[in-house]
Amino acid sequence: MATTELFAMPSATATTGSFETFHTTQQAASFRGVAMSGVNLPFVIGGGPSDLVEVLQPLDAPDVNFPNTEVGARSDNVVVTITNTWLLPITINALRTVGDPDFLVASDTNTIILAPGASRTILAWFRPTAQGPRVARLALDMGPVADTIILRGNGLASTIELLAGVVDHGDVNVGTPSRICLPLLVNNGSDTAIVDSIVVQAGRGVVIESPQGRTKVAPGDSLIVCVVYTPSSRSTLSTSGSISIGNRSYPFGIIGRGIRTTGVVRVGATCDTISAVRGDSAVFTITLENIADRPVTITAIAIDAAVANSAWLLNPSILPLTIQPGVAIPVDVEVVVQREGREQYTIRCTSNSDSAMTNATCVVTRSRTLIPSVGALEVGLLCVGDSITKRFTYTNASAIDTIVVTAADLENVVGTLSIVAPFVVAPRTSVEVSVTINAGTAGPLNGRINLTSALGSSIVPINGDVLPSITVRPTAIDAVPGDRRTTRLTFEGVSTTSTSVLLRHPPRMFSVRNALSVAGSTPVAPTTTTVSVSNGTVLTIVWSGIPVGGGADIDLDIDVLRGDEAVARMYATRLNDTTDCLLSDTVLVRVDTGCGGERSGVKLSAQPSMSIFPQPVRESMQVLVHLPQPGMRVELVDLNGVVLKSVLLGPSTTLGPSTTLGVTVDGLPAGVVVARLVSDVELFHSIPVIIAP
């Protein structure tokens, strides 16, 4: 025991603990012993009055020296390894630091249990709060005793430098965000600085856009801060913010001004009254004023009136116009008088004002001429030969003068007026005018009605277009499905090199391949097109020249189809209201709808047909006629078309649903003949018949 060393726990005089030899006791060595605590820690017990209990430390953990770290910054983590050198498991109940509060430790569990010879790592950081050496002990609590690890570090003076003391947003339009990003501080040290927070005063329209949360500033780098200011009213901003790094704060100011850029258009409280006649020019004045904080620049001024382009700036060279705050500038507007009475004008300015620069004013014009109720008579599109009647009124708006109309003329158009000069229009009375316009020739209508008095003329323009009229004469079609043939169209009154029409017919009765020139007529150009549509065929005919005398023919190359109808009408119409006016004959299209043509036995239920039995025929046959008509007959013809026999349906035949007819074949040669159901004008049905020998 004399050679045994005991470990003394750390104390104020020996902060790291110490080893010392086992004390000499009065009792024999046989009375000394070693005991074990309840937490697997060994105790050495002496045998005398001054007995001491010595606890053997079972943990091996080195002290930690951290690198020099700037005040407010946090060092990189240091790994501390704790090893159990005892023969039994050890439980560490808690980790705690004693001394300067500059050190941080972390473990992955609250309680650490170390088997014999096992190790566990924990992490430690150094974040100095003051300059100079900093020391603390990491105490490892193990029940009744604790082991310690010395933590040492050195705090360096801060090297953070504030670069900008104020963030100046200047003048900012109300409601418009202003964003400024600038470096507020720089890290001049050799260690990374950690910014804990950046705060500004709430409720002033200022927010920190970035950075958000904790931010690192590397050595030599600057902290870029983005500050957004959105003023809600015309006001001056003066507030502050602060940047927190550790226990230090770096204040900075934020200033700005919420402003408005507002221009207004000022007009008179009542309408200006001017003396003028319709068509004269008149001038009135408006005022443009800047009622806000910054210059207003006007780049354009639009003036809306009931009649387009009847008002404008008298001197447009004043634009662009810059108006300083608090300044008002008069501007003259020139108008062309359209009528006697009240006229409203809306002034709209294009500017940098943050509110619309617009206002409305009115002018009252007094004149001694008749005022028409319409600015112009618009007759639209007419066809050659059309007539149209329009009505309107002339009003004497004067409250004093009586107007005597000495002449009433209809100029540049063919037609009639309902009024005959001279006539008198008393003050504040009206006269109704009816004008009939006859469209004699194709082309634009540019006429006018002119009423003349001693005080001047009152004119109403007449505008419109007269379209040429053409006539289309189609040819009837009588065919069977599968035929390819031509059908002719005759045009009259063609006055241009292009004619577009819609040929109306059931598109499933026939389709048009193309349009062909006719010998002796004006040829059609290769650009002529035919397009099948749901109600017929659109023909766009391009002539090689204007047809002589307006007349021309074309042939349509068609394929006859099996449609849903046996008979339909065909006629031509205009494509739309802008194409040539058109008149058309109406003809019939007949298509034998039996399957396989007229030699088939399949017919539509609405078409006359027949069936023959028995087959083959030896002496006689029965013919069942469906939908018989007066004048029908049954013919037997050979393959050369020679009629071998003809039997007329009797005079008692009615338009009933069916009738039966007996036909003998005595004397006819054996072989194949064709039975046909015909009338004097039409073939209804045909069926092949075998005559047996």
Which segments are poorly predicted (pLDDT under 50) over 5 or more consecutive residues? 25-32, 596-601
CATH topology label of the largest domain = Immunoglobulin-like
CATH architecture of the largest domain: Sandwich
* Tally of individual helices: 0
- How many separate domains make up the residues? 7
User: What's the mean pLDDT score?
Assistant: 84
Q: Give the total of beta strands.
A: 62
Oligomer: single chain
Sheet/helix structural class: mainly beta
Query: What is the first-to-last residue Cα distance?
Result: 153 Å
The biggest sheet amounts to: 6 strands, mixed
Strand order of the largest sheet: 46-55-53-48-51-50
The amount of beta strand, in percent, is over 45%
Q: What radius of gyration results from the CA coordinates?
A: 57 Å
Task: Give the overall shape, derived from the CA principal axes.
Answer: flat
CATH class of the largest domain: Mainly Beta
Helix content: under 10%
